[in-house]
Design goal:
mainly alpha, 5 helices, 5% strand, rod-shaped, binds zinc ion
Length: 237
């Protein structure tokens, strides 16, 4: 493949811009605020489920409490009725049993009330934590969006410059560059001081002599990494 030395140098600009774009993309995906917001969302989902659980539990206990209140009422009514009959001399004394039944019913009701209060407290604490989390998320999301905005601007600038450079590279050379970039991450590298800057290997004398003998417009490849090797004034030839 043939391309003028100037055109070949455009490939180094392209490689620099692609490296910058990759760096910006890496920074965007690695933003601590992105991870922070994601972690908050995970915790928020947990809290939402826990609140639903506490509310369900509270409703169930409210029903149990209503039933227990009815039981207590029933025992008291029965007790009062029996006392009347006892006073009227109609029954023998079941007083101790009545007292025991009444105490058990009250105790059960008390236990249900306590469990219900615990469920209410749990729901309130979870709801408060969720509200606090929402505030933190808002702040983290604002910081994230600001950072993303800055990175986006830098990315747009680099992409614009890249688009400008691409127009100066013929299609076949650009296709080769893109193929190498897809395979190795970097499509073109400079030859500097007898060394390929792509794979960082120093070329042997045979390869260097071959490059010295090659025409200026010959598109060269590194024998080691196959990337497009671009000659510069610092190539050490
Ligand atoms: Zn190389």
């Amino acid at each position: 493949m043939k391309a003028s030395p100037e055109t070949q140098l455009r490939l180094l600009e392209l490689a620099d811009l692609d490296a910058e774009l990759a760096r910006l993309d890496h920074r965007r995906r690695g933003l601590p605020e992105v991870a922070e917001v994601a972690a908050i969302d995970v915790r928020d989902a947990e809290l939402r489920d826990a609140i639903v659980g506490a509310e369900t539990s509270e409703k169930d206990l409210a029903r149990e409490q209503a039933k227990a209140e009815a039981d207590v009422g029933q025992v008291r009514t029965r007790s009062a009725r029996d006392r009347e009959r006892l006073d009227a001399g109609q029954v023998s004394s079941p007083r101790e049993l009545e007292i025991l039944q009444s105490e058990i019913a009250s105790l059960l009701r008390r236990q249900i009330v306590e469990r219900r209060e615990a469920a209410q407290h749990s729901r309130d604490a979870l709801t408060a934590e969720r509200a606090e989390l929402a505030t933190r998320r808002e702040a983290a999301a604002a910081r994230r969006d600001e950072a993303l905005g800055e990175l986006g601007e830098q990315t747009d600038k680099a992409a614009d410059r890249r688009a400008g450079v691409v127009t100066q590279v013929p299609d076949d050379l650009l296709a080769l560059y893109e193929r190498m970039r897809a395979q190795h991450g970097v499509g073109a590298a400079a030859l500097r001081g007898g060394r390929c800057e792509g794979c960082h290997l120093t070329l042997n004398t045979v390869d260097l002599n071959r490059i010295r003998a090659a025409a200026d417009d010959e598109v060269l490849r590194c024998e080691e990494c196959r990337r497009i090797l671009v000659r510069t004034p610092e190539s050490g030839l």
